[in-house]
Amino acid sequence: MTNSAAIFPFCSLKRFIISCGILAATAFFLPAVNSTTTQNYMPNMAQSDVSPGQISTAGELERLKGEEARLAAMLASVRQQKLSVLRSRPLTVGVIGFGRFGQFIGKSFVKYANVIGTSRADYTKVANDMGAKYIPLSDLESFVLEEDLDVIVVAVSIVSFEDTIKDLVPHLKKRIETKGSSSCPLIVDVLSVKEHARTVLLEHLPVECDILCTHPMFGPDSAKKGWQGHNFVYERTRVDRAVLDPAQERPFHYRLSQRDNADSESEFLDEKGGSHNIRENSDAHVAGIDRMERFLSIWEEEGCNMVSMSCSEHDGFTANSQFITHLTGRILGAQGLKATPIDTKGFQNVLKLIETTNADSFDLFYGLFKFNRNSMDIIIKLRDAMDDVVGKLLEEEGKSNDNVESSKACI
């Protein structure tokens, strides 16, 4: 059983980090001095050759720089304490799907957690080289039952995600039966489509399993030099059997930056309108929140931009960004475009787009289409836009309306 008293320091450290950031920003943008301060600086201003504008800021910039340095040092100290707390009780993270992406995230996870990978292929040597443990997927029962897992990250393809969850469920139920309801690991997905993942996890997983839906908006190619500055989108979906309302739930970094009342910082509502707080008299609830915070902190420590967003909102955005990017890259790639001796920078960017999008599996592209209800709208809009642009070109050529419409129809 988790000791709730040991959890609060970790939450408090995160709260203090954000508070320091707010104080530093506030101190920097406050007006330098008021009229009274100016008079105190130079009571004989009328007899001075110094202008009022110069007097009002005299010495204030130096003072603000000193305050900024003090807060920066305090923030660095607290961040170091936070990292120490995070590493003092490292999570054990299992990764189902230890292929290219699973290995990619596993290499960073091992800095903060004990990592155990599983997959169909044999990646024992790869796991050993990065300091992780490996168990074949054929022995999924040992992976779930015998290992003391805090978190299971499901890093498989979109099209195989539901089948993987269905295969996982019997072993989770057996773990709960043999070790108790509090033994169920936090289940995390990393799919590029979020409504599908959320629906599958809520439909199939035992209610004892907490759920965190995430999407790292980067991969082995785009983040080969590190995760710093890359977006990490997540939705806390279920904690201690309570399915959270994504319209109400907010993470630490958002809530703490918006509120001054320390007693209400950790409140959120579930989808039935029930109010919850990390200080609730429930070890399971406190442990669930702490476990999520520790896992999310891994991404924070690696430099990700943490973005709290509902699964529905995420899919609306990615259809207009990620899917259309892959769609455009696939369409241009189908034309067989190749580099020439006189390429412009713009065309080089086109070739780079083709290279990066076609490097991903077609299963990923198909999954982005099939499991995001917004994708067909994007295809229709792209086709209409193509017809419109080509139609304008033909009109400039002086073609008749009938010829224009005929040409557009052929397209």
Automatic annotation (TrEMBL):
Residues 91-411 form the Prephenate/arogenate dehydrogenase domain. GO terms for molecular function: oxidoreductase activity. InterPro entries: NAD(P)-bd_dom_sf, PDH_N, Prephen_DH, TYRAAT1/2, TYRAAT2_C. Gene3D superfamilies: NAD(P)-binding Rossmann-like Domain. Keywords: Oxidoreductase. Residues 259-281 are annotated as: Disordered. Residues 269-281 have a biased composition (Basic and acidic residues). This is Prephenate/arogenate dehydrogenase domain-containing protein. It comes from Cyclostephanos tholiformis.
